[in-house]
Structures are given as structure tokens and as C-alpha cells.
Predict the structure.
Amino acid sequence: MRVVIAEDLFLLRDGLTRLLEAHGFEVTAAVETGEDLLSAVLADKPDVAIVDVRLPPTFTDEGLRAALAARRELPDLPVLVLSQYVEQLYARELLAAGSGGVGYLLKDRVLDGTQFADAVRRVASGGTAMDPEVVARLLASNAADGAVAALSPREREVLGLMAEGRSNSAIAQQLVITERAVAKHTASIFMRLGLQPSDDDNRRVLAVIAYLDR
Amino acid sequence: MSGAASPTTARTSRRGLWPLAHRSLLGGWHSLAFSALLLLGLGPLLAVLIVILEAWDTIMTLAGQRVGGPYLTSAGATPVVLILATLLYLRWLANLTRSLAGRWCGTPILQPYRPAPQQPGIWRRLRWLATDPATWRDLLWLTVNALAGTLLVVVPVAMVVYGIVFAILPAIGVPAARLPYVGIITAKGPGAGLVGVALIVAGLWLAPRLLSSYGALISLLLGPTRRSKLSVQVERLVRTRSDTIDAGAAELRRIERDLHDGAQARLVAMGMTLDAIDRQLDADPAVARALLAEAKDSSVKALSELRDLVRGIHPPVLADRGLVEAVRALALDSPLRVHVASELQGRPPAPVESAVYFAISELLANAAKHAAPCDAWIDFRYSAGMLRISVADDGGGGVDQQHGTGLRGIEKRLGAFDGVLAVSSPPGGPTLVNLEIPCELS
């Protein structure tokens, strides 16, 4: 799987490259700025681009804007945005750009290499990877929503993991329950929230996030 | 005269004549009210006269020129209370005149007084009143007002009253001859009616015009002088500056404490764990592995604490996107349904953005804490060098500006930029908070 990285801090860029190579990815380019990202992506046509939100020269949300621009140039280019902090606002903008193939994670998540590599693969294959903190805040801002409040604690856990973009088997593994139990929970959640059930993992994630993000 | 032309005429007259009449009648009524205020001013004028005569009497007595005065009973004993009461009454009257002038003459007038002393005490209050130059200007106003006010507000009123006496009363059958002698105009017969109507019309025509001159006169005498404006401003600057310094120091102390107890402590612990791992690596790989997990956990917690700290110092989204987008991000995190609207064309200076952001953050948190689930509206506007933000919610209300420490904190934070905060929150809601900060947009 071929990856382009955009990260301005040498230590992190180097660390990310090594981490990804250790997990069997091929890093075709590791660049420092948003502009370089765009040209690298257009030249290499990678399976996924991993981008830091803050990049030179402005050190604001340059990386996010570069990622969105890259997606406009190469529609459906999977993009995983990393950040020192997460904002629902940015998650919303990423999700609004195309359908699927989007990730938004705290930089802390690279500390767990296996999970991180998992998220990169998920995004590269058109799935979604939302940071648990984004999801937690989504759920918190929906605390007053009657339908969400009526879910059982276990169902809310499953809802959170679904919103992160996990598949049924991943959720089952995380919660140490059977996949059938997960399927039962998801069916119940979709019914209570009044959502159309779907077998497609990604469509399911988007439906859940869209519901929480109203 | 009839037909097609008449509707146009009617419309024109509605457009032209009615507002004119309305303005004139309003002017007449306002002149009448100001004339009544002139009468209220006679009291202190009399009191001032008495005080002057008393003083004169005292001086003469002390000089041995005369024993006992003919004006009031005991010389030198003019009660301090009378002076104090007179000055306070004068202040009340001047303030009333100021606010009425703002409403009726179109010239808003600010109060020029120095702030009242904090401690009680009749002498302290007296000194406060007597040493304020504004008090003496009030007295000057009182005197000038008695003369100029008569010309500017009493004359039109008098003209209308004369007009009524000469035109309307005879017309409804009260013969002019049986009226008491009311003035210099003594026309009789049908001519009197004409003169009367002319007087009414002229008086009403004059009233609004003279009122605006009267407003200018009041503002000249009762408005703050350059000097008093500056002294008020200096006083406010001293206060807000010390507030700002205090707040800055407290904030630095908090950051220092958070770093010391948080990230710094975790890094120390992590270093020690790594050292332990180093020792256990060969002896007991299983223990080393467990310690590694612990170290990793520590680093995640340290990162999360640093993130919270940064958010509290200067939220990254504020630097990235500016005030309005940062508030939208805040709105997304709030359990309330927050509607954000903005007419801002540019960005305020960074310190103002930061102060406003934290103010709104606090207000939203308050609304979410106190109020039942509700909607909130945040509205950004900018005009004439003033950034105006309103934060409203339809929750339970009952927010007290004086006693909420959060609100006082916001007030202090905005005070550093000459900004102000106004809260309206009746029990039962809704709550409306208005923030105003003078600044330039870029």
C-alpha cells in the first residue's frame, strides 16, 4: 500500500515513515508543506495521504485545506488528517468532501502502531476513521437528544465505535462480545434513531455521524 | 377642486403637514415639560441665594459691622444638611435634564461627575460634592438656565397659552373681557381671534427649533468638559489596567501549576518507568512489557493534559480560523442548539478575539449549566468602530450580573479593551447578554 506523508516536524515525519514501513506500507514521499503535498499526490497517485493539520507557511489549518484541495484534484483520494487537537468543525468539513475514505485522528493515536496502521488501511480502502475524542464530543453535544439518551449504555458504546468507523468484527473484538451481539445492538440502535439499516460499513458510519452531527 | 387632484393633495398633506404638526406639538409638549423643570430649579436657586446671604451676614458679623442678620435666624448655622440636600437635589435635577435633553433635543449628554466615595460619612460626601468642578458648573447652569431657559422654552409655551386665551376661549363663549388680565396683548373683537391663532401657530412652529438650541446650551453647561472626560477615563484605565495585570498573573500561575502537576510530573514518571524497563529487560521481559504499557499510557495522558492546557491558553481553532469560526466550533461542542450568525467583514485584533472567545465560551457553559435544555443564539455585528455581540438563550433566566463571578470575570476581561457587558435575565428567561468592544477589523 502506497502512502504520501505531509508533516513539517522532522522527528514526527521520520517516526511516521518508520512506523508505516514497519507495518508494510510503502512511503513514496514525505513532504513538509501543503504545496509539496499537492504535487507529490498528483505525481505518485498514492493509496492514501496522511496529512498534519498545521503546516508551513501559515501554521494554521494549511494541511486540512491542502488535503481538501488534493481531494478535489483527485476525487476519492483517501485522506487521513492528523492533528495535535481535534475539532468537530474540521471533522464536519472533511466528511462533507466526498463520501468515505476520510480519517481524522489525534496524533496521540500513532503511539498504538497496530491500531494506527489499522486506521490507515481502513481509510485507504474507502472507510472512515474518526478519533474517539471527536466521537465523544459528538455524543456529548447530543446528550439532550431524547433518542440518544434512551439508548442503553452498551448501545451507546457500540454507537460510539460505529461512529469511529469500526466494522462489526472490530467492535466485537473491542467489547469482547460476539459479532452477532454487535449486529443485534446496531439493529436496535438504527431502529431507535430512525435510521435506514445498511450492511455497507461506510454508509452506516456516515448515517450515524450525520445523525449526531445535525 | 375635486376629482383626480384631491387624493394627491390629501397624500401630500399627510406626508407634509401631519409630521410637521406632530413635530410641533411634540416640541410644544417638551417645551412645557422643560418649563416645569425651570420651576423645579427655583428651589436650589433660592437655597443658593440664602447660603450666599448667610455667608455675607456671617462675614459682616465677624467683622463687627452688624449684629444679627435680617435674613435668617442664626448666622453661621446654615445647616450643612441644607447645602448637602440642595447639592444632591441639584444633581438629580441636572441628571434629569441631561436624560431628557438626550431624548427630546437629540443631544445625549454624559454625566461628568467623579465617582462617589466608597466610605459613608456626611463630610466626605460634602467634600466629594463641593470639590467636583461639575458641581460648580451645575450651579452655573442653574443660573443661566433661569434666564436663557425662559427665552428658549417658556416663550413658545407662553405664546400658545396666550393664543388659547385670546382665540379659543372667546370662540367657545368665554368672553375675553371676563378673563383676568393676562398680558400685554389686549386686542378685542374678531381681530383678537386672529392674533390668538397666529400666536398658537408661531409658538408651535418655534418650539422644536428653540428646543434644539436649548439642547445645545444644556450640553455646553452640563456635558463633561475635556478635562472631566479625561479624568474619568484615567480613573477607568487605572482600574482596568490593574485588573488586567492581576488576571494575567493569575493565568500564568495557573499555567505554571498545571504544567508542574500535570505534564511535567508525568514525564518524570515516564523517565523513571523507562529506567525500570531498562533494568528489567533482560531479567524479566514480561514485567518490562507491562512497564512499557504503563509508560505509553503516561505519555498519552501527558499529551491530553497539554492539549487541554493549550486549549485554555489559546484555542488552536481560534488561531486557524478566527473568532466566528472558533465560536461555531464551540457551538458544535455545546449540548445546546446554538445558532451562530455573523455580519463581520474582517477579523478583530487577536487579543480581542481571544477575550471575546473566552467570554462566549463562559456564557455558553453558564447557559448549559443553569438553563434547561434550550436554544441559544449568537450574533456578531460591527458598526462605527464597535464590535457588538449578543448571546441569547431561551432557558430559565435569573442570571445575576452582580453576583456571578463568571460574569464579573468576563467584565474584567473585556474592560481591558474598554469593552462592556450588559445582562438582561428576568426569572423565567430569556437571557440576553450584550457585549460591546471598540476595535478595528482587519
